[in-house]
Amino acid sequence: MTTASAPAIECGSERLPGGFDPRRLRRQFPIFDNNPDLVFLDSGASAQKPALVIDRVADYYRTDYANVHRGVYRLSARSTELFEEARAKVQRFLNAADPREIVFVRGATEAINLVAQSWGWAFLKPGDEVVISELEHHSNIVPWQLLRDRLGIRLVVTPIDATGGLDLAAFAAKLSSRTRLVAITHIANATGSLVPVETVVELSHRAGARVLIDGCQAAPRLAVDVQALGCDFYTFSGHKTYGPTGIGVLWGRYDVLAAMPPWQGGGDMIVNVTFEKTDFQDPPHRFEAGTPDISGAIGLAAALDFIEELGRENILEHEEALTGYGVDQLSRIPGLQLLGAGQRRLGILSFDLEGVHPHDLATVLDQHHVAVRAGHHCAQPLLDKLGVGATTRASLGVYNDERDIDALVDAIEAAREMFR
Ligand SMILES: *Cc1c(COP(=O)(O)O)cnc(C)c1O
């Protein structure tokens, strides 16, 4: 029961709404049984998997496995049903209008390449502009550069402000009648900066541009409603959402997808093939050439069930509280500089420790069983802009609590002693 005033949040206690308790939750993740000392702070790179996801994939192979959309026999029909149920699960997770708007892909990288190659080649011409931001992951930069170099479009980069958040005024000024697409992250993976995507969508649509949102870091942390957002494409990766590797989602508005040509050719995406001519399926199958990652989709559906069971509001509250605790604790360490994340930071703490290279720091942290990431986090242009070549990044998941942050702080203090 929640009351009108928000209940106090204490990570690791049972006072969280919905009985959300990271320490108890950890028992559902076998990785922690098998690595009892592990302080895992790298969910931004990939989240650990709850037993029910691992078991769901194994059970599927044990009991229901066959290829989909092909066989007339019952096992294949059953497998197809599970695969299509997974699609419907993703539809509900994103509050999409129609399951045919859900395209299964390998991950966000493949989703963005699909949009660039299919939508880009069909609808862009030389001189047209695609706007991305300085906050982007390489996955939302390089596909557009490839298109620029082959097609002659212009790639426009909209800047962050002095606090590390998206500069909305500068963004508005970048938009023009030449802008055809705005491709932007929901949460920056290198800094945790939450982008006000609702405003971005509104401004972009007013300029007549379509909007693609890279939701890799947002889908595991907050409730995403693509109809409320009003964007045209949304993507996320299964493995960052407590699901298996090798599966991801591209959501596109049906009318937008239906106007797009196929991307890859092969089986499953056709209606009729002769050597002269091929008729293609409607979305989503048009974009799913070849045997898909069936077990991945079914495992992803289990992961989304897991997230919904926990409650996305509860997850958000948890991540916000723990992010705040992390900022407070890290800010007390002399010589530690947190990278700016603008008005709102969620789930990711990226920092520089004076006099210690991030790789050396991460190595010392690992000796204390603290798993973090060091490097450019696939966002080299952003780190260049912020004037750092590399950072150390701690990122949060549902199984983390204050003790993990405390362990991180202790390990950083030990490193400071070592490198003094
Ligand atoms: C991880 C990540 C990607 C790439 O996802 P893959 O699963 O590697 O395809 C893209 N954008 C952001 C913001 C990410 O965090």
Per the CATH scheme, the topology name of the largest domain is Aspartate Aminotransferase, domain 2
Strand coverage percent: 15-25%
Structural class: alpha/beta
Silhouette: globular
Radius of gyration: 22 Å
Which strand order does the major sheet show?
Answer: 2-8-7-6-5-3-4
Instruction: Assign the CATH class of the largest domain.
Output: Alpha Beta
Given the structure, what is the number of helices? 15
Please identify, by name, the CATH architecture of the largest domain: 3-Layer(aba) Sandwich
Order of helices and strands: HHEHHEHEHEHEHEHEEHEEHHEEHEEHEH
Q: Largest beta sheet, briefly?
A: 7 strands, mixed
Q: How would you portray this structure in words?
A:
- The chain is an alpha/beta fold and 420 residues long.
- It has two domains: 149 residues, Aspartate Aminotransferase, domain 1 (Alpha-Beta Complex); 254 residues, Type I PLP-dependent aspartate aminotransferase-like (Major domain) (Aspartate Aminotransferase, domain 2, 3-Layer(aba) Sandwich).
- It starts with 21 loop residues before the first helix and ends with a helix.
- The N terminus is likely disordered.
- Bound molecules: pyridoxal-5'-phosphate (PLP).
- The site of pyridoxal-5'-phosphate (PLP) has 13 residues, from helix 5.
